[in-house]
## 1
Amino acid sequence: MANGRGRREPVFDAPAAEAGELDFHLSAEDRAGGSMTRRRASRQDDEDRRPRRGSRPKKAKRKGRSLLGKLIYAGVVLGLWGIIAVGGIVAYYASQLPPIDQLSVPKRPPNIAIMANDGSLITNRGETGGRTVTLKELPPYLPKAFVAIEDRRFYSHFGIDPQGIARAVYRNITSSGGLQGGSSLTQQLAKNLFLTQERTASRKIQEAILALWLERNYSKDQILELYLNRVYFGAGAYGVEAAAQRYYGKSARHVSLSEAAVLAGLVQSPSRLAPNRNPKAAQARAELVMSAMKELGFITPDMTKTALGQPAESVKPNGAGSANYAADYVMDVLDDFVGTIDTDIAVFTTIDPTLQGAAERVLVDELNAKGQKFNVSQGAVVAMKPDGGVQALVGGRNYETSQFNRATSARRQPGSSFKPFVYLTAIERGYTPDMVMEDGPVNYKGWAPQNYDRKYRGPIALRDALALSLNTIAVKLNMEVGPKNVAQTAQRLGITSPIQANGSLALGTSEVTPLELVSAYAAFANGGIGVTPYVISEVKTLDGKIVYKRPSSAGSLGRVIDPSAVAMMNEMMHNTFVIGTAQKAQIPGWPMAGKTGTTDDYKDAWFMGFTGNLVAGVWLGNDDGTLTKRVTGGNLPTEVWHNFMKLALKDKQPVGLPGGERFRNDVPVAGGGGDPRYANAGNGENAWIPPQPQRRANSREKNFFEKLFGL
């Protein structure tokens, strides 16, 4: 008790006031000890409240901050490596391109515009199919149509359109429709200029690099102009000019709004949207184009309404028919005049589009009407001026099915149409049209040629023997004057094909082309001047620079026939229309001359004829040499020639033949027309009874043929 006297124990659950009082009465020592105790307790409490090292809450908090930091760090690192990788890939594919400082836009393959003699376009030749055009030449809505449907932000992006790419990706993912693709016009141009059409990542990277280069070096209008002249429209047409000619038969300078919309929509899929093959799909696409143009303010609502009410209609291209045969001939000879071509040129020709169309039409109509009946499938027509300028050249029935040019490349036996060269050789050696020879059987060492009708007429004047195309007289003349001399005569007049100088030469057994045979006949039509056929009169660049101009004297072979001989030959060949095998070819009022030709096996049938202003020739037959069903020069070829000449000479004043004073220009009506030399043969046909002129005093027939046969 004593030890506890006066000592008070603290009461911890006492009220604060009492506790304060209690503490107040503590001794100084107690207060000091208690204070230290409280400070230790306070520090202990602070330590208890502070998270212990290694405790779970402390560890979780530090782990969360570390993961976020690591993710950020990893993202930065991966981004940097991605940039490096992309840069490396871009640098690698850029290294596969030519050095940027040496890069240049490749030249566009030159176009060759082949023009008719009236300045109209026949067709385009070259890799592109059309000439280069400038933006200034085009109607404003045409280039705007391409911008609207292919790259509406063309004038605002830097060559690559991120929004367009994003839209394309979204469309591919969602399979939703859209108006534009991912590639900008600049990228498409880069692909067309420098790259292949393969769809690979490497090609897209290179495309983007080149697009940036184009944007840096060319203005937007220059890029658009390059694009319009390089993009592919299908059917061999590169560039908007070629496409306009191909599908609408007109220059891009003259296309309507509806036609422009079709062309702009076509580049997405040239094969699927071709207006000549799939007009409904082409029109549907064109309506999308016009909708985009209206949305962008490129055209007014009224313009849209008008265009939708007048949808574009494709036409058959000019080059689909016989004009392409003429164009092929132009291209065959062009190198001889202009050499290497490195720019667009216009080739002005002698082709008359009216005569070209007429020649094609009459040939096709005749074959369609009678080809099957007579078993003849092909033909060729050539017409030229007497100076050699080719005005029509049809090399076959249908160019689309056969591009072989029978007018210039097919060598066929001319038959009796070769006989004028035999008669001319005789005339030049003193024979005259009035001289008489005996039409009778001939036999040369077993070879016994006969006349077409297997009949003989006895004594007959040369003029009538040629008109009636008697084989026996032609063979006798050939043997008398010498086959070599006849061959030389034909070559002098322009026959360039090889000629076999033998006894059968008089019957046209040496093959020739229609073009060279017509050009040889031109010497009769022009008074005796030999000509080389020509079709090119002038060549110019698009800026008007003359590359070639045909001299007025070019192509002339000089005088190859004496004027008196020309007069006698024309008299005899005129007789073919009066009493001979070409009576059906007469055109009233026009003095004409010519000669039919038929091979003895009916493989080939010809007619060569001329007036004073036009020479024309027709060949009919089969490419494989199949025999026709008795097609002769006097039936189908004569009909084609007559129908063509009737159109060619319409509304023209008759022109006399050289030497025309020697014979009448009034041609009797077909079938005799009261000519006293005709009498009825009893079979419904008019048979000609020849006059009985005096026989030549000096006959050269005796044993002469046997001596010359085979020469």
Note: Residues 56-95 form the longest helix (40 residues).
## 2
Amino acid sequence: MSRGKGKKLKLLVVDDETDNLDLLYRTFRREFQVYKAESALAALQVLEERGEMAIIISDQRMPEMNGTEFLSKTVDRYPDTIRILLTGYTDVEDLVEAINSGQVFKYITKPWNPEELKAVVQQASETYKVVKQRTNELNRILRRESLLNAIMTVVRESLDYESMLGTIVETVGSNFEATGAKLYPVEGNKLRSSGSVSYNANESDEPEVSPYDEALVKTAVEQRESQLVQDDESNATHLVVPLLYQQDSLAVLALYQIGNDPQWAQEEVKLIELVAEQAALALSQARLYQRTQEQAQKMLAELEVARQIQSNLLRQSFPETDTEKVQACCYPARGVGGDFFEVYVHPQGDFWLALGDVSGKGVPAALFMASAMSVLRRELSQDNPPDPAEVMQNLNSSLSDDLISNNCFITMVLARYTPSTRQLVYANAGHIYPLIWAHRTVVEQVQQGEEVTVEPNFVKTRGIPLGILPVWKAKDDSVTLNPGDVFLLTSDGITEASVTQVDSNGQETTTMLQQEGLWKLLHREGSPIDLSHLLDRVRGNTQEQEDDQTILSLEVL
């Protein structure tokens, strides 16, 4: 049972009779490192000075404090210690209390049989070894899990790829007591020429001669396996661990320790490899996040260019005459959109007005919007443009194949106004009804405090949207505008906007604006009408713009 010098298990014997103490000491001194105490208080003092004992043998009947009370005081502080109780008599109550409160391993009566006592102590020592081994193993597991959780919590708190490199090398280096650590980024299974980050335990600059074994680092990258080397000349231990994720080499971590004895036991190497595996996952996510951010920034820049191009496609200036005022505004829900308008003054003097909405949003709708405007301008620039319905037919003929194949369509109103006759001829391809009303009369009634009696005229002649059928068929319709009348075109992004209103009880309600709500807003517009002001009022009550918003008006002065 000998464990060699300095490796004997510690045994404490406690008895108020000196002869018994001497006998116990002589019995076990060769196999154990034996400590004696003549009372329970003296035994507690020995434990305070010498620490945990493998086995405690205590007499039951002692002055000041009996054996059961003494042993119970050692349970919380030394849970792994094996306890044996000696007594000169057998009392069932004492036996129960000893087992319950003192967690006694064996209960032996005096006088004891030496061979029997040795056998019990031998059994106790083996039990202690097993318990201690399992306790140490459990503590190692708990330490490993705690350390792993702590490291990964720190690593995952960072989303920035570059800062995560520094976090990994510093956290691993400090937690595993490395003298120094260095993380080399890897791209295409080759070390990146720049971007490595270092950690030094002494917080000083890296020495002029690098302590990192560069050949070992390259070997780890090529073989994709950890490398552990003890360098006797430099008295240093080198550990290089690759960071791999889904067969993709992301980085390689090199650590070294200066010391006389080999560092990093196999258990710690496995733990470092486990940390490296989790760090590689976090690093992969950070790299993906960084690339996503870069792509998003690039896309935003491209969308801004597209937005500017699309904005330039729309008319930036409008005809100014003494008898007509034309206005238009367009606000895409995204960077670019499918709404468009056109204001074209033909050399013959006619005003051509158009407002359209391509189904969908974003870039696809914007591309069809640009195509529609190109074809429309080609049609209107002829010496004698056809009537609006025929222009619509030509638009449908040019665009229907692409629209149908992409499950898209265009709603649109096209109107031709002749100032000399004040006649307005229009065609509607599935768009919401245009609105005509005597705006000057409405303004006068509002200014005089009268109830508004003017009713809007929704011009309802309408055909199907463009791109539904190969051939578009519908008829023109016409109206005559009087001085003070307004012809208004809007997209459904305005009439279907969700606006917040406050009722008489102060409660906020969110409803769709619709054409009735738009008509109420038009009551409060001055003359001539200001579309920018009108649209600001609509947008001011809208929590979130869900669709492109476009509006166009022709006011006869």
Note: The longest helix spans residues 266-313.
## 3
Amino acid sequence: MTLDPNTPVLIGVGQAVDHWDGSDAAAVPSPQSLMQRASEAALADTGAADAVRAAIDVIAVVRHFADSAPGMVPEGTGGCDKPPLGLARRIGAAPSRAIYSIVGGQSPQSLVNEFAAAIHAGEVKCVLLSGSEAIAAAKTAARKGVAIDWAETIDGEMEDRGLGPMLLDRHELRNGIGAPILTYPLFEHALRARLGRTRAEHVAAMSELWAGFSTVAATNPYAQFPKAMDAQYLGTPSDSNYPVADPYLKWHVAQDAVNQGASLILTSVGQAAAMGVPQSQWVFLHGSGEAMDKPVSLRADLSRSRAIEVALEGALASAGKTPEAIAHYDIYSCFPVAVLLAAETLGVDPRTTPLTLTGGLPFSGGAGNNYSMHGIAAMVETLRADPGSFGLVLANGGFLSKEAVGIYSTTAPASWAPVDHAPMQAEVDAQASPERLEEDATGTIESYTVGYAKGRPARAVVIARTGKGRIVARPDDADKEGAIAALIDPARDPIGRTITIRHADGVNAFTVSA
């Protein structure tokens, strides 16, 4: 088969991890040094590093957590003002375009989808994608009193794509929905209720799933936390596995205290051949899917993700594959519900089908918006070792908000064309939204969570249904402790319980009926 020379292909991948303990200040990793290490590894992985380096005309960097939201990284470390140009200088590349992505864990796969199309159209020649986090180093330095300065000013033009669209609206923020740790439990409990599980049964299911992920991380040389943990430990509160937000304990959620970097190199078949990249390094994108969901409280069913469903189904259809044809998966795993919903859509049993190649965000490490760059890198290496097989990567951003999927293989596609994601987005947009209320009302709890601070319950949010619509509410200040106590009462499942909502000044406040 003669390949179209414009067919896009992945030719190099690289990863880096650093377990810096704070003892040698001169050895502290930075976001820029981790991207440099990963990018040099990706260049070496091509087998034609010098030729590929000279051909790079685009460098795109996944947005760092420090530039994504305030307070996500300890202050005082400084940073590079133009990360893609800083990376170019470090590796000796001279790109004509430098791009800094929007916020979101979908970004690595979304960038692959974008630049595969640009390569096919002849708009770019060779693209380096990279990203990193050094949050562990920043926290270790702060704890040990080690001064670090990552400030770097770079000349040149950079395309800064900004933060991207808002994923929550003012109504939600006023009424208690905010950080991921207080939002994903709303999906988790809704799924639990739909499946008919008790709280204990769902914690056991989450812990069993995560025990398998931790086993994968234990053998991953790039994992930040390479230690197998059994389901009993993962499901039992302890000093090292304390409650963070019902139903989650510490190790049920993504761990962002990492020092990790990952990079990918894409080009065309014709350019790869001209640069002397061996065909043994080539991995092709066969299909893709992308979709963005509505704000959380406007979604029709909190126990499902229409964006995940549509993106997965669209990617499989564009690749001409069914889940039965997929041998390898890396599913974004910030919280168990993301994996469970993807597995449900794919029709695979997460207890018997491995759904991570890295160990996932709790164990391999939640490298900010860049986790799926590691997932794609691991997928490329896995497919090279299993030529002819197919693999699927699902990257997730926000609050099950932004989904990007890629289907890969060493087998070349018979023909390649960019995938139109607009019909997928139209499907998500077409879902009906419940009427959202701001008024005094009585309703029944649809989902909820209680957030913890220093081991003690400190805040809560509920989503309730009334005969007219849906209400998002936080505890009434007059009975905050009583409301929280009712939600964590082991004798009664909060879902389905009656609550009374009092509305004032844009805020819905609830109390739980006896």
Note: Residues 199-217 form the longest helix (19 residues).
